[in-house]
Amino acid sequence: MPARRDLLFPLLLLGGLALSRAGAQALGLLLPQDRGPRELDVSAYPPEIREGYRVFAHKCSKCHTLARPLNTTMRADFWARYVGEMMQRPASNIGETDARAIYAFLAYDQTHRKDADPGRFFPPLTDEQIELLLAERGRR
Ligand code: HEC
Question: pTM score, two decimals?
Fold first, then answer.
């Protein structure tokens, strides 16, 4: 998969630039996708993708549950941007090897599971939607 590997680097940099959104302020905020399933049976996935899931389950459940990424659908290549973004958050503790393994899982899962039935999943929220959720929470 040399092509995908070459693509990951610039996308990781791009992710860093996209950091300006709600960011850490949104910690503890419940998004619609958080209410979906929090784990996935990956027993039918190829071994290297199962390994990616293991890293993903460990690293991507620190600030929100796995429900958030598992129930979000987006174009497979956009996941690289997301992993890059999450990688740069303080305390995420996601190194480059982890990021590659996580991205491999997310891209595979997107094309094999989510793209087959997109209506079951949520598109990522826009900055405006996140601001709105934060404001609503502030009023409660
Ligand atoms: C350091 C804390 C932290 C870690 C670690 C983390 N996230 Fe997040 N994540 C957040 C916060 C906070 C949000 C809320 C939206 C925002 O600020 O962009 C979020 C939102 C998301 C969203 C929804 C975005 C949207 O717009 O609907 C997805 C998908 C996601 N994270 C995936 C991941 C993946 C995949 C990983 C592992 C690579 C991960 N997260 C690790 C903090 C984290």
Answer: 0.85
CA angle 64, 95, 115 (to 5 degrees): 55
Q: Largest alpha-carbon pair distance within the chain? A: 50
Hey, which of 21, 64, 71 would you mutate to test ligand 1's pocket, going by the most ligand atoms within 8 Å of its Cβ?
64
Ligand 1 site residues (CB inside 6 A) read: 21-23, 26-27, 31, 59-60, 62-64, 68-69, 72, 82-83, 86, 89, 91-92, 94, 102, 124-125, 130
The answer for residues whose C-beta is within 8 angstroms of residue 65's C-beta and 6 or more apart is 34, 38
CA–CA dist 63, 28 (Å, integer): 8
Q: Which residue positions in the chain have pLDDT lower than 50?
A: 1-3, 15-22, 24-25
pLDDT in tens, 12-50: 555 444 444 445 445 678 999 999 999 999 999 999 999
